[in-house]
Automatic annotation (TrEMBL):
SUPFAM superfamilies: ATPase domain of HSP90 chaperone/DNA topoisomerase II/histidine kinase
GO terms for biological process, alphabetical: phosphorelay signal transduction system
Organism (species): Streptomyces subrutilus
Keywords: Kinase, Membrane, Transferase, Transmembrane, Transmembrane helix, Two-component regulatory system
Name of protein: histidine kinase
Domain Histidine kinase/HSP90-like ATPase residues, every copy: 278-363
Entry's Gene Ontology molecular function annotations: protein histidine kinase activity
Catalyzed chemical reaction(s): ATP + protein L-histidine = ADP + protein N-phospho-L-histidine
Membrane-spanning ranges: 29-47, 59-79, 85-104, 109-127, 133-155
Amino acid sequence: MILTTLLYRASHLTVGVLAVAQRRQDLPLQYAGIAAALALTALSYGAALRRGWFDRRHVWADVLVTGCVLPLLLCTWGGVGEPALLGWGMLLGGSSSAAAAIALERFQVLAAVALLLVTHLIGYQLVGASPAVLGGHVNSLLSSAVMAWVMWWYLRRQGRLLDDANARALAAEAHKARYAERLEHHRALHDTVLATLTTLAAGGIDANAPLVRERCAREAAYLRRLIQQTADEVHHREIGQALEEAVGSVESLQLRVTAQYHDLPQVPPEVAAAFADAAREALNNVRRHAGTGHAYLTATGDGDGRGGAVVTVVDRGPGFDPERYVPGLGLRGSVRERMAEVGGLATVDTAPGEGVRVELRWPR
């Protein structure tokens, strides 16, 4: 708005400079008038540009000096006796009213516009202007104030709408982050605590076995941290170490795993964590559904030169028909979604009587 009203004032000053330059010898007071208008414009708008907004004292000085006093001086002592010579001085009142409309309070705006209107009426009465000339300048004065105020109102309204939209976006992002955190905790609980409790409830293992008790203690510590909301789930392990921990976790529930690692690459920590968590759940599915106590895990570097990795989990169980099977939380959330979140891919290859092969690949 500062720049808009400054450009508006510059157009009026250009008219004034051209009008005064055409009558150098006849009306010397007009030189002083245009110089005063230029100086006051530089003061008012220079301060506004430095501060970021108008100083109301400068706006009032512009209205009173440039918009009111200068035209009347031109009429009384400037030797102006016809409307054409007074026009450039009255024209400055339009840009004065525009600045007043956006920088002053409502009643102050009305007062400033009223003063400018009275100046127009008196000034053009002194030089004998026709009603058409007076009406045109009054219309310009009022239109300048109204259009500046409407533009300023619209910009403020749009600013408020944008602020509200930003606030809603931030709230949505915060909600999304909280949901993602809860989902990650649900996945971890599904893959660890729930898997342990399900196995113990089935009675297939000795609850007093050292490995089982060690696993229960580790998962109890995780639950305690989760309740206290101080759990640090940021993994900084190599992919091989992360997979070994996943294998050890399910072996403590009496699933025998044959694991082979070959030429594993360096991957980001979050990718190593995703591989380990997805592999753990795939192994849990073998223990729960395959009807066999043996699984095979193979981890290798991806040979396409992109520095990726491929992990496969295979069992020799009865398999299933993919067309009739609806993926549960484990396969859908703990395996596929985990890999997708880090830019990876999880696929399941199975058929009745053929076992199940889960392939985890990063990148896609």
